[in-house]
Write a structure and sequence with these properties.
By secondary structure, the chain is an alpha/beta fold. It contains ten helices and seven strands. It folds into two domains: about 160 residues, Alpha/beta knot, CATH 3.40.1280.10; about 70 residues, Orthogonal Bundle (Helicase, Ruva Protein, domain 3), CATH 1.10.8.
């Protein structure tokens, strides 16, 4: 059941054949939820040919124009990348990441992102991940075909799903991706409003804050508290009085 809650998200794929090959890789390991963010060409005969029997995965694939739409409802989002990035989130290997994803997928949707063939995931796309995944390949030649990378992660996810348990360190449900994106928008707006963030010279403050909160893996109740704090910062109560029920955003 956990594999049914794993989304494979391909971002801006250039060659439709890679989409078909990725669908085939998914089906061999029991994955079926494929989401495509702004593919260059889809549907396409090359994708059908490379799918080689995984036509049902292609037919059910969701095509979206924004990455945020592919991630709605996901409790944990991981991005596959071949190299560490400046100010990057936590990076772990494919096996450890698959264990975390499979465990969380027992109770909620999760997503695994793959970038375009030439340059991988952009910094903006990585910002929407809670952790980064690397495949420990030959350091002298670590370039993997997109479908090959999907196949490796799909295999690791299948193996992990057999013995996956709810992570001990997260006993409560995590905030979903769309909730976190709402929090980051509200946080940015609030920081601008109080004069802490200059929108004309933002530098990398929000990237650093995203990295900070991603490390904590915010629980749903903690998200509600944070949103309540932002609400009270924007609308301070004269004389204080502490937290009230209507400060907590459900």
């Amino acid at each position: 059941m956990s594999l049914q809650r794993v989304r494979i998200v391909l971002c801006q794929t250039s060659h439709p054949g890679n989409i078909g090959a990725a669908a085939r890789a998914m089906k061999t390991m029991g994955l079926g939820d494929l989401r495509l963010v702004r593919p260059k060409t889809f549907p396409d005969a090359a994708a059908q040919a490379m799918a080689s029997g995984a036509d049902d995965v292609l037919a059910a694939a969701q095509v979206v124009t924004r990455l945020e739409d592919a991630l709605i409802g996901a409790e944990l989002v991981a991005g596959c990348t071949a190299r560490p990035r400046d100010l990057s989130h936590r990076m772990i290997d494919a096996r450890e990441a698959s264990g975390l994803l499979a465990a969380h997928a027992r109770r909620a949707p999760v997503a695994l992102l793959f970038g375009t063939e030439m340059s991988g995931l952009s910094n903006e796309e990585l910002d929407q991940c809670q952790l980064l995944v690397r495949i420990p390949a030959n350091p002298d030649y670590s370039s993997l075909n997109l479908a090959a990378a999907v196949q490796i992660l799909a295999y690791e996810l299948r193996v992990a799903s057999v013995s996956a348990r709810a992570p001990d360190e997260v006993p409560f449900p995590l905030a979903r991706h769309d909730d976190l994106e709402r929090f980051y928008r509200e946080l940015e707006s609030t920081l601008i409003g109080i004069g802490f963030l200059d929108p004309l010279m933002p530098k990398r403050l929000m990237t650093r804050l995203r990295r900070l909160f991603s490390r904590t893996r915010i629980e749903h109740e903690e998200f509600n508290i944070l949103m309540g704090i932002l609400k009270r910062i924007r609308n301070p109560r004269p004389g204080g009085g502490g937290i009230q029920d209507n400060d907590i955003v459900e």
